[in-house]
Design goal:
- This protein has 188 residues and is α+β, with helices and mostly antiparallel strands.
- The chain contains nine helices and five strands; from the N terminus they run E-H-H-E-H-H-E-E-E-H-H-H-H-H.
- It folds into two domains: 79 residues, Arc Repressor Mutant, subunit A (Orthogonal Bundle); 97 residues, no CATH class.
- It has a three-stranded antiparallel sheet. A two-stranded parallel ribbon has the order 1-5.
- Helix 3 packs across helix 4, helix 5 crosses helix 6 and helix 6 packs antiparallel against helix 9.
- The longest helix is centred in the middle third of the chain and has 24 residues.
- It is elongated.
- The relative contact order is 0.14.
């Protein structure tokens, strides 16, 4: 299993925009499972889950790794999927916007839990969503070039930090406002 798989192809990302497929990939992060096990956890019939598994397998998200009795066991092809769909189709744009909103809200909740006193929740979430979108847009070409490269999670982390650094001048004003909202001083 690879550590990181970067996905930029719109058709592959569309596969994961289906809730059942997304939940299958999420469940398989815990451990390999059979179609029967997944069907029970999802509350779906086996044929439906099998159809979704085949689509995910064809797209390279899951793979068969063996058998348990008569059941085939499936696992993810990577521990971490970095989904960066680059397309202007309406459903891809809608998927990206929903994803960015969810992630901005998660970051808000994480920072609140860490003790940050964020002055304006809605403005912070909107600013965070905009920044995440800006960074994704600016990283489009480099990430496309990295799509087939076998990366570890830490290498991906470093690559993303470098991409943000390369574009940091374009984000200065938003960074200043984010520091204000977070109640932290200027970086030195």
């Amino acid at each position: 299993m690879r550590e990181v798989l970067i996905i930029t192809e719109p058709e592959k990302v569309k596969l994961l925009s289906d809730q059942t497929r997304f939940r299958i990939v999420s469940l398989l992060r815990e451990r390999p499972m059979s179609v029967g096990e997944l069907a029970e956890l999802l509350g779906k019939d086996r044929s439906t889950v099998h159809r979704h598994i085949k689509a995910l397998e064809d797209a390279g998200f899951v793979e068969e790794i063996g058998r348990e009795g008569i059941e085939r066991l499936y696992t993810r092809t990577a521990r971490l999927f970095l989904l960066k769909p680059f397309g202007e189709e309406e459903d891809i744009v809608a998927f990206r916007m929903h994803y960015l909103q969810v992630e901005a809200e998660r970051l808000y909740n994480l920072l609140k839990k860490a003790g940050f006193d964020i002055r304006d929740r809605e403005e912070f979430i909107e600013l965070t969503r905009e920044v995440l979108k800006n960074i994704e847009d600016l990283a489009r070409e480099p990430l496309k070039r990295l799509e087939g490269v076998d990366l570890t999670e830490i290498e991906l982390f470093h690559v993303l930090n470098i991409l943000v650094f390369l574009e940091s001048c374009e984000l200065c004003e938003k960074a200043r406002r984010a520091r204000e909202l977070l109640g932290i001083g200027e970086l030195r």
